[in-house]
Amino acid sequence: MTTSPNPAATNENTNIIPFLPTGNFYFSHGIHAFKKRRFDAAVKWLKKAIEISPDEPLYSCQLSVVYTEIGSYHAANQLLSEVIVQFGEQYPDCYYLMANNYAHLGLLSDAKKYAEKYLDYTGDGDFEEAAKQLLGMLNSIEEEEIEEDFAFDDEDELLIYQETAFYHLEHEEWGQALPVLQEMMELFPEFSLAKHKYAYALFQSGEHADAIELENAWLKKDHKNIHSLVNLACFYLAEQQEERALSLIEPLRNVYPMHEQQKLAIAETLARAGYYNEAVDRFRALRNKQVVRRRSYYKWFSISCYHTGNPSRALQLWEKGCKQFPKLSEEGGPWIRG
After folding, report:
1. Which residue intervals of the chain bear CATH 1.25.40.10?
2. Which pLDDT score, from 0 to 100, does residue 121 have?
C-alpha cells in the first residue's frame, strides 16, 4: 500500500533556500577581523575568499596586507607577485606594497626598484606620496652609508679605537674594553654604537645595575633604538627577568633593520630568548663578511641550528667559531643555551 506525499511537506522542503557563501562573504569577515587586529582569523577568512574566487585579485592583495602587518613579508610578496603575473598593469599598487615589504626585509635595491616601478605606472596613485617618501628614505640611507665609509676611511684614529675595542669585546676582555670605549664616547660622541658596547661590557663585568640604568636612560630618549632594546633584553634574560625581556623582544620580532650590525644583534637576541627558528632565518639573511665572522654569529647561529634539528650544521659552525675564538670551546657546545 502506497501513501501519497504530503503536499504541505513538499512545499516546505522546496521553499528552503540553501546558503552558499560567496567570496565576498568571506572577504567581509576577513576585513572585519583585520580591523579588530585578529590576524589569524583574518588570514583564515581571506584564504577562504581566495579559494572560492581565485580570479579576484583584491582578496589576494588584502591578504598580503595582513601578512605585512604580522611580519610575513616573503609570503606577502609571493601573493603580490602572483597578482602582477595574472593581472599585470591593472594592479600597480602591488608594486608599492612589494617595495614596502622589501624595505622591511632590508633588501634596499629591490625596494627601490619596485617603488620606482610604482611611480612609473601611476603618476598620481593612492600611494604616490608614500612611495616618494620611501624612495627618499632609501636614497638617504645609501648616501649615509657612502658618507660613513668615507668618514671612517679618513678617521684613522677612530678606526684604531674601533679595532682595539672590537678585539677586546670579541675575546670577552671586558676590563680592557671599557676604558677604550669610554674614550671613544668622549672623543667621538657621534659614534653612538660605542655607548651601547660600553653598557654591554659594563654588564658583563658585573656592573648590572649601572648598565641597565644607562640603557634605560638612552631608551627613554629614543624608544625605538634597536641597540638599547637588544641590550636590555639580554640583560633581563641574564637576570632571569623573562617577562621584562620578552616585552622588549616581542616588538623586535617584526623589525627588519637595514644595517648588518643591527640584523646580527636581533638574530642573537632571538636566539638567547629561545626563538630558534626565527633566529636561524635572521642568521641566514646576513651577508656582510665582517658580521658573519663575529663570535656571536658562530655561537648563537650554531645553538639555533642545533635546537632546530640541524646538529651537523651546528657543529660545523661551532668548530669554525672555536678556531677563531678558542675560548668558545670552553663553553661546551651548541647544545647549551648560553
Report:
1. 23-149, 156-331
2. 81
